[in-house]
Amino acid sequence: MRLDKNTYGTVLMVYAISAVVIFLLFRYVHNAWIVWPLALAILWVCCWQTAFHMVPLRNKIGSSTIVSAVADGKIVQIEKAFEKEFLKRECTIVSIYMDFWDVHANFWPVTGTVTYSMYHPGEHFLAFKPKASEENEHTCTCIRTAEGKDVFFKQLAGGFARRIVCYAKDGLEVVAGEQCGIIKFGSRIDIYLPVDSEIKVHLGETVRACETIIAKL
Q: What pLDDT band is residue 175 in, cutting at 50, 70 and 90?
């Protein structure tokens, strides 16, 4: 496990603010029944934030024909949908919702070449709401496999997310299971798959990035 390279500043800020607050508590509050529980709660937040921004070591089971989960979380949507931004065709959409307690590092779902990447500013509705897919801040990435299949996915910011990091660049060769970015705080991933894909997950299922098979192409 390692800390995501784009979150050093965030984690450092959390620790610095926590240190100041704990110092002020011990300096000006002279009631141990108040100081110690608050100090321990603040330390717990520091530990949680560190874990939240870690990049876990996972078994990489994805390939150019096997789509693995982009993120940890719960499957909240499986249905047919028209992808109008880049593919401009009917797809099967599989959505993964990440809550506060999930690791928020994201990983490439398949092995292939990035053929499209785009950042879209937007709103910050709760990520599990349907309109979040179109109106929230998000990035879009498409990967074409060696077999000529396109896998398109969105990283969506949620109600509390304020930064999306994506490493996609047009022409970049990527490997399933390697880190593709991170979303800070509650958020969602929408994966658009060819309609003939064999979906391997079901609604409400909890998935693990890299280690859960989403579909076979």
A: very high
